[in-house]
């Protein structure tokens, strides 16, 4: 590490074990290895220098943003170098005319959105951690978020990337234009690759026109989780095009109520929170209100002010923190076709009952993307066998319904045990071949994603 420290500006390399431990973890329960050091990159040149050194000395490199990941993709291994990109926070360009921004990977997601809104624009992807997660981490995992039901996931807003490859070469992918089909889609390949193919040092992202008026927001309460799922299917089938459609189960609502005392009613088993940012948003919200009532909602309310709407959305964003207060969390994010969302919800409830496991579920319901969170005792190094058994059932059923193991959190370390069930031998071989082209020495985030 001394040679690397001498080749970088002073203060860029950390080696104190007590300090670097905090950079070795993400938000999972996983215990990291003991990395050799941390590089606090402040520029692309810092990344280039680090990767050239790592290639020369065959040292594994674990790229890292804010450490908000939920799949273990940025958990460090023994002897690795953690490459933190959190100091690369420049918005290099924001062009209202072209509706694009060029940003470095350490930019906080919500900060980019706020900068865009000063020009009547917005950055559409908004994971629940948007106030603390970074653009680089969102790109690395192809993060989704609450608005992706209408605007898509991070990949849908990524136009081009600046990437430092394993050997230190700089690769520019994509374009600044809304359309472009020259060559292979390397931008799409790197988005979601979890730092296994290269280190993203800048991104050209698409901005969109912000809604002219505040979105219309509604909240509906249901006596059963399945009824809430049926309401979601009805809303999407009716073509209401919500800009947000979030589902919270009873266990999640109880966790929030224990923390913030939201006045949860005994009969409420699920809550659906939806928004429309269309020009006829109030009419759309009223239509979604009707569909909720037709599918068993016991109570529906449409917000009367932007403040009320923010309070409802804030309730959803509290979900994971509320569960963390109750125990260690194994967070999953299966995604199924929207038409079978009620069936998937039923399967999760059945798995919880069969194995005696506490599962608290939220969902980006308009996408069919569910987050069943398996809660177990704090301080437990590994989830107990009954948690793994329940998780096996949930993943297997999702695949049987035509779904996928992860909609937005990524594979990381946590989903390695199930990856072969979805990928199959041919896809696995092809992906390993792609990895070998970009990272022949296998030093970029080894053991993650594939």
From TrEMBL:
Pfam families given in the database record: FAD-oxidase_C, FAD_binding_4
Signal peptide: none
Molecular function per GO: FAD binding; oxidoreductase activity
Family of this protein: Belongs to the FAD-binding oxidoreductase/transferase type 4 family.
Protein name: FAD-binding protein
Keywords: FAD, Flavoprotein, Oxidoreductase
Every FAD-binding PCMH-type domain range: 31-210
Domain of life: Bacteria
Cofactor(s) the protein requires to work: FAD
Organism: Nonomuraea mesophila
InterPro entries in the cross-refs: FAD-bd_oxidored_4_C, FAD-bd_PCMH, FAD-bd_PCMH-like_sf, FAD-bd_PCMH_sub2, FAD-linked_Oxase-like_C, FAD-linked_OxidoTrans_Type4, Oxid_FAD_bind_N, Vanillyl_alc_oxidase_C-sub2
Keyword Membrane: no
